[in-house]
């Protein structure tokens, strides 16, 4: 991993134009990803994780649209580019692996033919070159090259996901965006696929942005972790630090809701209540209605991100001035 910033997302805002009030699914999100880094994004269902990934990859379609901010990738803002300008970047420099290979792969086309389509669409026309690269990426993900002649339904779930990853690596991109690529797999296949992604990353040096619901997956595999709640980043920092000393009550709640594989047995506690309606988020802190540590200011003051020993956390508990006022009033 280097210190070169590969992806620089600033103030990114995405809205779904449905009903009377637009739904702001991603609200002014900042995200930097360095070359070769693995960044995990977690949060409850509906918090905007997939929308953020689609916005970064410029794959949103109506009613969703980017209404503010920028996506800097290798120094260029993707948001202002048209499809023709994006074409040379897609697959070659940035590729996407979706949640379900069964939906992303064409069911009536052999795997090899799908690889070939991607390579031809992006400028590789030599049949020999396409064959060689297709066999190489299948080897990289541990699938015998005979399966280039298979249809998706002839492969197991794990093999389908692996072939999606192989397809994403056809051009050795700098960034691979993954939206829960292991969620349809059993835990054994899940772990083996994750180990393989990490090995490939070490070998080929690409960065990964990885969305999941699974805290134990990110605890093992990500360098840095972003926790999202109601369209916003609520905590972002070094994964170990976030796990050891969560700086946001929502992160603590997520951690308490997941079993630890090796630690002592403890009772799991869920987070009471449910996430807010993003068309009408609560005033003040969005997590406040569910927060065990909420105090009066949380009802009205929308918290910014505070720096807490190198981790960013969107919680008024870290506002020294506000806390001094609260202490002096009691
Ligand atoms: N087609 C749509 N029309 C209107 N609003 C939508 C649409 N799709 C998503 N949303 C809104 O965007 C929010 C974020 O959705 P998104 O799928 O990005 O969340 P997520 O965190 O990826 O959830 P999951 O983990 O279940 O995939 C949802 O809460 C919903 O309010």
From TrEMBL:
Xref: InterPro entries: AAA+_ATPase, ABC_transporter-like_ATP-bd, Oligopep_ABC_C, P-loop_NTPase
SMART domains: AAA
Keyword Methyltransferase: no
Domain ABC transporter stretches: 7-255
Keywords of the record: ATP-binding, Nucleotide-binding, Transport
Record Gene3D superfamilies: P-loop containing nucleotide triphosphate hydrolases
Pfam families recorded: ABC_tran, oligo_HPY
GO MF entries: ATP binding
Protein name: Peptide/nickel transport system ATP-binding protein
Organism: Microlunatus panaciterrae
């Amino acid at each position: 991993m280097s210190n070169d910033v590969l992806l620089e997302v600033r103030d990114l805002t995405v809205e779904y134009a449905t009903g009377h009030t637009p739904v702001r699914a991603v609200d002014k999100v900042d995200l930097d990803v360095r070359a070769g880094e693995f960044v995990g994004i977690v949060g409850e269902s509906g918090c905007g994780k997939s929308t953020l990934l689609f916005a970064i990859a410029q794959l949103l379609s109506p009613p969703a649209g980017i209404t503010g901010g920028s996506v800097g990738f290798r120094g260029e803002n993707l948001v202002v580019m048209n499809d023709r300008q994006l074409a040379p970047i897609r697959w070659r420099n940035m590729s996407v692996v979706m949640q379900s290979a069964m939906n992303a792969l064409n069911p009536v086309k052999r795997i090899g033919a799908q690889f070939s389509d991607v390579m031809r669409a992006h400028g590789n026309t030599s049949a020999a070159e396409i064959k060689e690269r297709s066999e190489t990426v299948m080897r990289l993900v541990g699938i015998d090259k005979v399966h280039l002649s298979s249809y998706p339904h002839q492969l197991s779930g794990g093999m389908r996901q692996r072939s999606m990853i192989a397809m994403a690596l056809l051009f050795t991109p700098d960034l691979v965006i993954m939206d829960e690529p292991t969620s349809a797999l059993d835990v054994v296949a899940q772990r083996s696929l994750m180990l393989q992604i990490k090995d490939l990353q070490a070998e080929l040096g690409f960065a990964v942005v990885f969305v999941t619901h699974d805290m134990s997956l990110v605890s093992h595999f990500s360098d840095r972790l972003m926790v999202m709640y109601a369209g916003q980043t609520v905590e972002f920092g070094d994964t170990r630090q976030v796990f050891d000393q969560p700086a946001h009550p929502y992160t603590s709640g997520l951690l308490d809701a997941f079993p630890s594989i090796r630690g002592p047995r403890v009772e799991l506690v869920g987070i009471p209540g449910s996430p807010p309606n993003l068309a009408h988020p609560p005033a003040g802190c969005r997590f406040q209605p569910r927060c065990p540590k909420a105090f009066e200011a949380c009802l009205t003051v929308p918290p910014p991100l505070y720096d807490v020993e190198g981790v960013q956390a969107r919680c008024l508990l870290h506002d020294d001035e506000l806390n001094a006022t609260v202490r002096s009033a009691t």
